[in-house]
Amino acid sequence: MPSSISNSRHPAFTHAKVFFVICLALIVSFEFLSSYLLKHHSETYARVCRQYADALQVRPARPGEPKSVLMVGNSLLLEGIDVDRLQKLTSSQLSIHPIFLEATGYYDWLYALRRLFREGSRPDVVVLGVGVSSFLSNGVRQDYAPLMFFDLKDAANVAHDLKFDNTETSNLLLAHSSVFWDTRSVIRMQILRHTVPHCRQLFLLLKPQPAIPPPPEFAAIANPRLERLQQVCASYGAKLIILVPPTPSSEDAVHQMILASRKVGVKTLVPVDPAVLSVHYYQPDEIHLNSEGAAIFTVALATYLPRQLAHESVGSPN
To answer: Would you say residue 281 lies in a domain?
Structure first.
């Protein structure tokens, strides 16, 4: 009888092993294919890798040299700043090293800056520009950021900070560890962009900008975050400046951010008052600056950022 039972189990065990081997082969194949596509066909990955590697080489300026500036932010800076022109206009005073990744906010850059500092980046100044809404948001970008900005401990700490449940935590840890898991949404979005007209505009309509909270709630969220960022930068000898790029109808949000920053002793730079820019200077999504708006913002930033650093005062020109 035992021999009969053993013989009956043998085919099932064999099938299970074959199934396991097939799954393992598929996982490995997907991982290698995702890694290849990421490294050879992703402009975002190539850009951020290049910028990140450059940022690691940043060192404090010696006497007589331009101050080193690490400038980080999301698509508001990516679309709103002509980096080449900014560097050219400020080259005698500043050495600017940008890292821009779309759809990032406070938590993405808090942990990205921590890792950059740990790995040896030593700028004189850190300029963070993500927009007020993204600064107040409770979340991280689920692709690219876990893979490129976090180590395993960072990913676990982010999940703890944001009070992720087990599923969300597992997704974040997998996104850090697996290229396929990290880029699955990117691949899906690329497919949608090639099959659905005006895909980006449709997603913006489905996900409108959140409302800015009233002053007491705004301060309760913003102040601890500003203090935390300032402590991270100060512990490595860097000065923190919050750069507020213009967005439509954001005058009240900008004012609240200036007040919150001033309360905790963080410098805020508003090169362009959003009230003076009409919709003519924005892209059709009415969030990002177009080429004309970017030209205005770039020149204003090139004018007021060196003054900010030279005079140690809050620049908020109209």
So the answer is: yes
Instruction: Give domain status of residue 132, yes or no.
Output: yes
- Contacts for 201 with CB less than 8 Å, ≥ 6 apart: 284, 285
Q: What is the domain count for the chain?
A: 1
Asked if the structure places residue 101 within a domain, the reply is yes
The pTM of the full predicted model, rounded to 2 decimals, is 0.86
* 83: containing domain: 51-141+210-311
| 3-state SS assignment for residue 249 | coil
pLDDT digits (tens, 9 = 90+) for 162-192: 999 999 999 999 999 999 888 877 666 666 6
**Contacts of residue 66, Cβ cutoff 8 Å, sequence gap at least 6:** 90, 91, 92, 93, 94, 95
Residue 291: per-residue pLDDT:
97
Cα dihedral sign, 211-190-77-248: negative
Does a structural domain hold residue 256?
yes
Contact 60, 123 (CB under 8 A): yes
Average pLDDT, the chain: 88
Widest CA span in the chain: 91
Q: Which amino acid is at 4?
A: S
C-alpha distances (whole Å) from 209 to each of 54, 78, 190, 204, 250 are 32, 18, 23, 8, 11
Report the C-alpha gap between 48 and 23 in whole angstroms: 32
The CATH number assigned to the domain holding 283 equals 3.40.50.1110
Check whether 157 has a pLDDT greater than 90: yes
Q: What percent of the residues of the chain are helix, what percent strand, and what percent coil, each to the nearest 5? A: 60, 10, 30
d(CA 245, CA 242): 10
